[in-house]
Specification:
46% helix; 7 strands; three-stranded mixed sheet
């Protein structure tokens, strides 16, 4: 949870409301994750649904369960919500899957969402928090270049702040596991395809239906490397037969469980150093 005193967090949330009122009309890029859900809920409370519009980009890189949850949240919270199709798969630079893949994804998002905002004289806002500023996130650069704003950053809200503020507001997304796009399961340099995204989506959906919550299926051709939260490793081992059956059905020949557990963004982390010949031979 956040280390902020209660009054300090309340002040930051008030600053967020003030920033949204300053913008007057917003279109929230709403993925259903903790950050964008909090932003959509607060924007609707501060501005009303007539001036706060939650828009979800729907494409093969969005998990089916996440799209369904966006619809459910919109109904529960009274959001004005629109799902729109994006076409990042038509961009060769996106399919190539280099270290700037997210730039091309957000550029596509802005190409689709910006006209909606323009028609409403609104500003596109994204649920970027202050922690995100310290990570490699080229998508933020693309969104900023296209005129999007980041009200959570302006208000000084971190990820922990968002979760705690969401809990206090009674938003069920306060402890929702992070759910990056399905393309993040594909190692950099491995081309993104609809077939691969579909396999990952089917595999992760199966694991969640078995009761696993913090889940990633990392795609390595015929091999699926499963990551789950450390507290769920025992459950994964216990359910191994059902897991293997489901992942075979999703198109994987080999199924492995990563004993280090779930680590967000670990496909971008450098591999551990290999031991030298002398170290390998040491007793």
């Amino acid at each position: 949870m956040t280390d902020r005193p209660d009054c300090d967090l309340d002040g930051a949330v008030d600053a967020l409301r003030d920033e949204l009122r300053r913008l007057e009309r917003v279109v929230v890029a709403f993925s259903g994750g903790a950050d964008s859900a909090f932003l959509a809920a607060v924007a609707t409370q501060a501005l009303g649904p007539a001036r706060a519009h939650a828009v979800t980009a729907v494409s093969p890189s969005l998990a089916g369960l996440e799209r369904d949850d966006c619809a459910a949240l919109a109904a529960e919270w009274g959001l004005r919500w629109t799902p729109v199709e994006t076409h990042e798969m038509e961009r060769a630079a996106y399919r190539r899957n280099d270290t700037d893949r997210c730039y091309h994804c957000k550029a596509e998002l802005m190409d689709v969402v910006a006209p909606i905002a323009a028609a409403e004289s609104a500003t596109v806002v994204l649920g970027v928090n202050t922690d995100d500023l310290h990570d490699h996130r080229p998508g933020q650069r693309a969104a900023g270049e296209a005129g999007a704003e980041f009200p959570l950053v302006t208000a000084g809200l971190s990820k922990a702040d968002v979760r705690e503020a969401s809990r206090r507001l009674g938003l069920r997304t306060w402890d929702k596991p992070a759910a990056a796009c399905l393309a993040s399961r594909i190692p950099t340099g491995t081309p993104v395809s609809i077939g691969v995204l579909s396999s990952v989506d089917r595999a992760e959906t199966h694991l969640k239906q078995l009761g696993l919550r913090d889940v990633r299926v990392r795609h390595y051709g015929e091999t699926a490397r499963i990551e789950v939260g450390e507290g769920e490793l025992a459950l994964a081992v216990e359910a191994r037969r059902a897991i293997v059956e489901g992942l075979h059905a999703a198109g994987y020949r080999y199924v492995t469980l990563d004993l280090e557990g779930f680590r967000s963004g670990n496909l971008n982390a450098p591999a551990p150093p290999r031991p030298s010949a002398g170290e390998a031979a040491a007793p």
